[in-house]
Amino acid sequence: MELHYHLLDVFTNQPFGGNQLAVFTSPPADLTQATMQRIAKELNLAEITFVFPPEDPENDFRVRIFTPATEMPMAGHPTVGTGYLLAHQNMLGDINGEKIVTFEEGVGPIQVTVQADSGNQPTNILMRQPLPEFLDIHEDKQLIADMLSLSIDDLHPDVPVQVVTTGVPFLYVVVNSLEAIGNVNLRLDLWSEHLKGTNAEQVFVVTTETQYDGSTVHSRMFAPAFGIPEDPATGAASGPLGAYLVKYGLVPAGDMVSEQGIEMGRPSFINIHIGVDGDDFTDIVIGGTSVYMGYGTLVLADE
After folding, report:
1. Same CATH fold, 144-286 and 2-130+289-299?
2. Does the pTM exceed 0.70?
3. Which CATH architecture best describes the domain 144-286?
4. Where are the domains of the chain?
5. What phi, psi does 257 have (nearest 5°)?
6. I need a surface site. Which of 102, 125, 149, 258 has the fewest CB within 10 A?
7. Is 214 helix (H, G, I), strand (E, B) or coil?
8. Is 93 left (phi over 0), alpha (psi -120 to 50) or beta?
9. What residues contact residue 177 under an 8 Å CB cut-off, 6+ apart?
10. Active-site residue among 42, 47, 104, 179?
């Protein structure tokens, strides 16, 4: 059995930046979850996707997303990258500047807007995420600082350490400076003792100091439970990030940019739009572009 895939760098306009993604556009219908998981572990990228026909004919594609360790109910850079790849491979028909497609993911239908140039090639992909839920607040900031190998004084004193989700939960920790976020070193002993198996397994650290002009915040994300020691670009975390920043007054509602992956040598830039009406969130949208890097074939024994 031959399985063909495409390689992308997502949330970047430069090769070797952003977050890597492999997209399998024509897997056999009977490909098992176990085999998809083994393929993800074999390729050892942060995430890969398998694109199937939709279960509901009103949608466009069914997209299954895997990390090396688990299947994801939803993820940002795989969704954005898959949208880009389908357009790049002319699998969306004539885009006419902009086209909305719907992916079936584990959290339900996800709306993706594909923007293209006059040659029908993608220029920007927007992903609309579910509205945010604000979950557990972790009161023990000293423990969080110790887990990150930081001083308690490195943590922002006025905002909570809190879990927020738009489909996948992340624990948001705000630090005071680029120096502090650069010094983060996740202690797996404390993470395993206190966060593993909870809704705070994915740790997202952010500061409003930035390295690049045009960025709003500087971010890092650690997800050992997903088999990802550190992620260079995390779309699923960027929607809740924007909502968190707006809720606690660190950034105004509207458009913002999260720079990520700098410490890994893979600079990534994720566009975020947060819409509000009074105290209510109305829109959570992330977006960015990708770079097509190549293609390959896996040859497997028939299942």
Report:
1. yes
2. yes
3. Roll (3.10)
4. 2-130+289-299, 144-286
5. -130, 130
6. 149
7. coil
8. left
9. 154, 207, 209
10. 47
